Amino acid sequence: MRVLVVEDEPDIAQFICQGLGESGYAVDLAVDGLSGLDYLLAANYDLLLLDILLPKLDGLQVLSHLRKQGLSTPVLVLTACDTVEDRIRGLDAGADDYLVKPFAFSELLARIRALLRRPPLQVDTVLYVGTLQMDTLRREVLRSGQAIALSPREFTLLEYLMRHADRVLTRTQLAEHVWNFDFPGDFKVVDVYIGYLRRKLARSGDSELIHTVRGVGYRLSAMAEDV
Ligand code: CA
After folding, report:
1. pLDDT tens digits, 165-198
2. Do 100 and 155 have their domain in common?
3. Across the chain, which distance is largest between two alpha carbons, in Å?
4. HSE of 94 in the Cβ direction (CA atoms, 13 Å)?
5. In angstroms, what is the span from residue 44 Cα to ligand 1's centroid?
6. What's the CA-to-centroid distance between 93 and ligand 1, angstroms?
7. Residues with CB under 5 A from ligand 1 (ion)
8. Considering the domain boundaries, does residue 198 fall inside one?
9. Ligand 1 center to residue 11 CA distance, Å?
10. Is-contact 95 47, C-beta < 8 A?
């Protein structure tokens, strides 16, 4: 899941970006409203965390530009303003939820999960593909009942593959949703991480789940045939 954070206070921005990174999200940071809008129009985000008091363009203006462009990206507003009028203005402008600063990181994570569970995004928190099972809340992966330890990046990659099981995903799609703008730009990194996942998912007697679709990308499927 790829998240854009628009926040101008360095300490808060670092707190959020570091925590989300450790939780397996791909995170980009914009430090003013104008660059936030540029990022949003340039990339495909699964969620926006938006501060209200921002230089250049405030959060409410960013939000109204975003919705006018027809983008339905879920938006969680982070605000120091906690009057009822402020909250109503944020929700009226198209925010899906808001969180008043200061907040506990665990609450931020819970709000993010709730937003990402809302339709049209996937509602399931436990995913199954063949003998593979992932609990996205407990961050556990099991293959034929055996726990598999994954790094945060591997987990994010596998979750994306499982949420799009039986569909061919291009390297570009995988890079966009699993990596952020720090992405090295060399799609070999995607291949390398697919290799890591294959090795970890391989258990004697279990079939290959990640299929290479030559010249295109990858498909996660419990069905054995290769394309
Ligand atoms: Ca601010």
Report:
1. 989 998 888 887 888 766 666 788 899 999 999 9
2. no
3. 60
4. 20
5. 24
6. 18
7. 8, 51, 53
8. yes
9. 11
10. no
